[in-house]
Design brief:
Blueprint: H1 11-23, H2 30-43, E1 47-51, H3 54-64, E2 72-75, H4 82-89, E3 93-96, H5 108-117, E4 121-127, H6 136-146, E5 149-153, E6 161-162, E7 165-166, E8 173-177, E9 190-194, H7 197-206, E10 211-213, E11 216-217, H8 228-239, H9 241-259, E12 274-275, E13 281-284, H10 287-299, H11 316-319, H12 327-333, E14 336-339, H13 347-358
Parallel strand pairs: 2-3, 2-4, 4-5, 5-8
Antiparallel strand pairs: 1-9, 6-7, 6-12, 8-9, 10-11, 13-14
Bound molecules: pyridoxal-5'-phosphate.
Length: 362
Amino acid sequence: MIYLSCPDITDKEKRAVLEVLDSGMLASGPKVREFEERFAEYTDTSHAVCVSNGTTALHVSLLASGIKRDDKVLTTPFSFIATSNSILFCNAQPLFADINPITFNLDPNKVEDILKKEQNIKAIILVHLYGFPCEMDAFSYLAEKYNVKIIEDSAQAVGAEYNNRKAGSFGIAGTFSFYATKNMMTGEGGMITSSDESFVQKVRSLINHGRSGRFLHSELGYNFRMTDIQAALGIVQLSRLEEFITKRQQNADFYDKNLADLDWIKLPVTYLGHKHVYHQYTVRVKSEIRDAFVKYMNDKGVNVAPIYPISITQQPFYKAMDSFDCPQAVKISSQVVCLPVHTKLSQDDLEKIVKIIKGFKK
Ligand SMILES: *Cc1c(COP(=O)(O)O)cnc(C)c1O
């Protein structure tokens, strides 16, 4: 079986974890601080804060941005459900703008249509889906014009760049996930990046029970901390990230070249000034054949998946909330198929995958 994702662990990661276990300091300590410093440096932001996962990173970023009950937060219907759930955790109201079907990301024009119409939108959560950065010039302009904060859900986009600036360095916050299937991983884990000093102070308080001193708690907070075990793993993964990205890009190039002549598959695009880190290599086929194609590939031993097969606006409990009109997201969710693009694929694997795809009888 060729899997859709595969963690890339070497002896270096194993030694780093064992060192922490031997140190007797397992909770949030020196390794967490070192991981934060290195991550801030990598993303060219002033601060990074380790948290327990990508979902808590989003939740706390909204809270620290001042989002409260009944505020409106705009986001994409085509993402992992954690993106919009984080808005509900704050008792705020999620609004959805439609996506651009070519980039899979939020369409700035659709976002502006809603910003014009709706009062009281306080923030936008952008998602750099599959590792492809959003149109940040357009969104930075909108943020300024309509006075809304930007949070970049960069869970799939660690290392991605827009005009030579890293994903997670544009908004008031960038949020990251180090879940086991992500481009760099710590099993479970997350990070918040920001260059706003008071925002970061608020985040540090909220993830640690609102603590402001020894045995002193000034506000209601949570336990969203990371352990030194995870941080030690993360430090090594971060040191290998450029190697991971290069391998993913080479795999994507192979597909680009070897699938180009198939007229029934649309390949993903990338644009000048966008550094795509290929968390997923996502193709589109006609809705009528999508599920048959997924089944065929899995039966042949190649794990592919329709990510995401249901837009968030079509999920039962969101559907019950409101009637959100995002036809592109609904259509695209019936067409997408993610092919394996991870770092452990061999040349043989890639050739085998292409050969099997070419053998699909529509
Ligand atoms: C993985 C992911 C999350 C959630 O991260 P967890 O670490 O699993 O909580 C949020 N948004 C997107 C786009 C993701 O891919």
